[in-house]
Amino acid sequence: MRHFDYIIIGGGCAGLSLAYRITNEAALKQCRVLIIEPESKTRNDRTWCFWGTDAGLFSPVVRHRWTNITIAGSEFSRTADIEPYHYFFIRGIDFYQHIQAFLAANPRIEILRAPADRWDANDTQAMVWANGETFTANYVFTSAPTGSAGQVLAPLHQYFKGWFIETESPVFTADTATLMDFNVAQPDLGLHFMYVLPFSSTRALVEFTTFSSQLLPDETFNQALEKYITDNLQVDQYRITDTEQGAIPMGLPAKSAVAGTSRIIPIGGQGGAIKPTTGYAFWRIQEQTQQITAQLAQNRWPSGEIGHPRRFAWYDQLLLDILVKEGQPARIFKRLFQHNPYPRILKFLDEGTTPWEEVKIFAQLPLWPFLRAWKRQYAPKPSSSRQALPATPKIQHL
Ligand SMILES: Cc1cc2nc3c(=O)[nH]c(=O)nc-3n(C[C@H](O)[C@H](O)[C@H](O)COP(=O)(O)OP(=O)(O)OC[C@H]3O[C@@H](n4cnc5c(N)ncnc54)[C@H](O)[C@@H]3O)c2cc1C
Q1: Is residue 395 part of a domain?
Q2: Whether the Cβ atoms of residue 340 and residue 176 lie closer than 8 Å to each other
Q3: ∠ CA(248), CA(392), CA(206), 5° rounding?
Q4: What pLDDT, on a 0 to 100 scale, did the predictor assign at position 396?
Q5: Does residue 144's CB lie within 6 angstroms of at least one atom of ligand 1?
Q6: Over the stretch 261-316, which tens digit does the pLDDT of each residue have?
Q7: In this structure, are 107 and 208 located in the same domain?
Q8: 270 and 134 assigned to the same domain
């Protein structure tokens, strides 16, 4: 039985971020860390975007950054500067290789290329069983799906498929990312929009996204992408150089997913790091792993809880309820982006706004959907009509 200070189950975004931060922390230089990850991570299995004033530790792997964003709908289209923020783009493969190369130079970090079969903890230590061996540690941090991480308000996923395309003639404005283009209306779908990240005047990622309770057929994504490129972008000649596809669960994590009372601490998507109403997680994972590293350095019990004010979880709960029960809240997004400076909205989505800034944001939104959601969530109901919450959907890799 081999003992480590920390075992990290899952060497994806959260696991590698945590290992990287622990290795960079002077107070933890002597710690021995085992990462258990079955995949070799030699494939570009995803790309990450996030906004911030700088890209922090990951500046060396930022491939592209945008200074303007566009939100477009049938009644409005607005492109604006997001100063002081940038919208950053990182390729998964660059992130994995950068961190793995850094960790390989440290003899105190070991990587086991196998799945963890089981993990458990008692009062004094945590145990992990993998590859026919038993390992012990002071703490285990896990981003591996367990199916018991928590419960969510809504059985909703953000499903998306994107094409990296190259066009023959110049089409795109390379400093402007389109976060949501609602000019793709399909009557039977829930909230859906196109997302366009141009890397030059002739290269871009064009992605079709839906917020839905079920995965749509692949053909629906392909047709939507083809139609948008041909009709909206007015491009006939293009080449698809790569694709990206995924599903991100949208729901509120239960307290059990984040509370730091056990020696097993869920991190990343399993640890409540996905923003329930947007699906963004990269920057929240950085906040989470930075906080855990600081707690370990101060010899405190680590907690995966992202310490943002509780009112943001409440806002998320109401918006999720509207998304699930009222179908098409595109109007809310349009009003949000039409009437507020973009940096204020990004700060709000980062859960960093003051209550006064939030009043200014809410003043622009339609009131009734939120009142109806509040009533559905909080008005007293006969116990027989209460609905059991479904189990956390896992991130599906399509
Ligand atoms: C295609 C895609 C694009 C995304 N784009 C963005 C974006 O642009 N911006 C953003 O903020 N968020 C994005 N997200 C959401 C989120 O940032 C990512 O899902 C992120 O990778 C979550 O990090 P994680 O560490 O929790 O999970 P992962 O990165 O998936 O890591 C989990 C790891 O656990 C490993 N594992 C599984 N089972 C076991 C086991 N039994 N033992 C050991 N290891 C195991 C897996 O192999 C995997 O490497 C995206 C998600 C997807 C799927």
Answers
A1: no
A2: no
A3: 10
A4: 36
A5: yes
A6: 689 999 999 888 999 889 999 999 999 999 999 999 999 999 888 889 999 999 99
A7: no
A8: yes
Nearest-atom index, ligand 1, CA of 283: 11
The CATH number covering residue 35 comes to 3.50.50.60
- Looking at the CA of residue 92, tell me the nearest atom of ligand 1: 21
The pTM (predicted TM-score) of the whole model is: 0.92
**Ligand 1 pocket check for 49: Cβ under 6 Å:** yes
What is the average pLDDT across 203-225? Answer: 93
Domain membership of residue 172 as a residue range: 156-245
In terms of domains, do 94 and 176 share one? no
Q: Is residue 82 part of a domain?
A: no
Question: Does ligand 1 have an atom closer than 6 angstroms to the CB of 135?
Answer: no
Answer whether residue 178 is part of any domain: yes
281 CA closest ligand 1 atom index: 11
* Ligand 1 pocket residue status of 50, Cβ below 6 Å: yes
Phi, psi of 52 (to 5 degrees): 180, 170
pLDDT at 382: 62
pLDDT of residue 107: 95
Same domain, 43 and 165: no
Nearest to 288 by CA among 255, 265, 263: 265
| 394 within ligand 1 shell (Cβ under 6 A) | no
Please write the tens of the pLDDT for every residue from 241-266: 999 999 998 877 655 544 456 899 99
Mutate to test the pocket of ligand 1, among 58, 117, 248 (most ligand atoms within 8 A of CB): 248
Instruction: Count other Cβ atoms within 10 Å, centred on residue 239.
Output: 11
Indicate if 191 and 331 belong to the same structural domain: no
> Tell me, what's the pLDDT at 234?
96
As a whole number, mean pLDDT of residues 162-191 equals 91
d(CA 25, CA 340): 39
Neighbour count for residue 397 (Cβ, 10 Å)? 9
Ligand 1 pocket, residue 96 CB under 6 Å: no
Residue 135 has pLDDT above 90, yes or no: yes
Considering the domain architecture, whether residues 216 and 145 belong to the same structural domain is answered as no
Q: Which atom of ligand 1 is nearest to the CA of 115?
A: 42
